[in-house]
Please model this.
Amino acid sequence: MPNAEIVAIGSELLLGQIVDTNSAWMAQRLTSLGVNLFYKTAVGDNPGRMREVIARSLERADVVITSGGLGPTQDDLTREIIAEVTGRKLVRDAGLMDQVEQRFRRRNMTMTANNERQAYMPEGAIPVENPNGTAPSFIVEDPRGIIFALPGVPFEMKWLFDNEVIPYLRRKFDLSEIITYRVLKIAGLGESVVDDRMGHLIANSSNPTVGVLAHPGQVDVRITAKAGSTEEAMKLIAPVEGEVRQLLGRHVFAVDEETIEDALGELLRKNRKSIAVFEDLTGGLVAERFLQAAPTCFVEGVIGSSPEAVKRVLSLSRQPERSDELMKDPFALADELAWAVRVRTGSDFGVALHAVPDPGDKAENLARGQTYISLTDGKNFKHRTYNMAGRGRPDRTRMSLNALDLVRLALLEGM
Model:
């Protein structure tokens, strides 16, 4: 199985003006193809650093895929640098020149002289036509490894990768194995707890391998298998997936591309339940996610950002005369807000998220404080309490997911 390295070229990537989505996309394609990707490198439009990075890539990878630097401007240096690194002259290719000229003719545009640079490539390279742009691609077969030079424009790069790079790699390396994975998404358990429960699977796995990745409020368990076909790989994955599900139970809320919104929306529609939301510190994020989950089941969202707004909602609580007292008891307050928002809307469920942040903690993630989540159907309550409360996006994402997960589990348990 060949090893690959991706080299993303362009100073704009290092300046943060453009996010390098190309490399992530190519990494997924290489994984499914069964090619190992051990390095991804970004380098600016600097000849010396480009030369160093590409030369080093050739020393440690069988396949080097560059993206960017094939345009007509003076800072598009990929052709020249690849020619230098592989010890070749840069030569004009008549076929590439014709491709570039035809592109301009078809679009009724005048071709400036600098576009002729795109018709040059390292001597002996294999030209690759780019039907979606003016920057032709090429392949250099060097004794140390193979270099694919692809454009940086995403839709051009993707077409060339799928239609030229993948078929070439299959032929060149006789790739018969593919890599397939299954991702189980976990809520309600931290990364360390997940590792404690199933660490033996991670430590002792070979094919399939098992890994864990943490997100705010969510842990992903990835099970990856190599086989001759997707069907064979899934057969390898199935028993491991079964063991993970047994160990983690209902904390598994979704698979692969599914989200917590997908899982909850299906349950709300299946059970024909409607829901309303009160929230404060999360600023509407809980309501937004319920709306994404099931717009036909979501009745209303209330954001209470001031004591006066909270008291207006509490006017529909079970004991509105106790509103001043409730404001001092955050646990009881969350219950009454959940009750009141349900009464206010006539929905089946009311859920409230009330947070008490530490005013001195400005952290974006895991900020100090307390968050109280309450859910009621008018008969019973379910609660969750967390020793964190932050205004940063990670904290708000985490707590909004926890609110959705509380409702998901309540529906599964028949509340």
